[in-house]
Write a structure and sequence with these properties.
Ribosomal_eS31_arc; Ribosomal_eS31; mainly beta; 3 strands; 18% strand
């Protein structure tokens, strides 16, 4: 089971998937969440 910053202690994904791509994890930035694949951005 993968264990890194993307997964919680239960092995579940701890980040949001991109609502546009569906298979990509959104990167956490200080002021936004961003998809590196399609460019989708959610501002905080």
């Amino acid at each position: 089971m993968p264990h890194n910053e993307y997964y919680n202690d239960d092995g579940e994904l701890d980040r949001e998937n991109c609502p546009r791509c569906g298979d990509t994890v959104l990167a956490e930035h200080e002021d936004r969440q961003h998809c590196g694949k399609c460019g989708y951005t959610e501002w905080k």
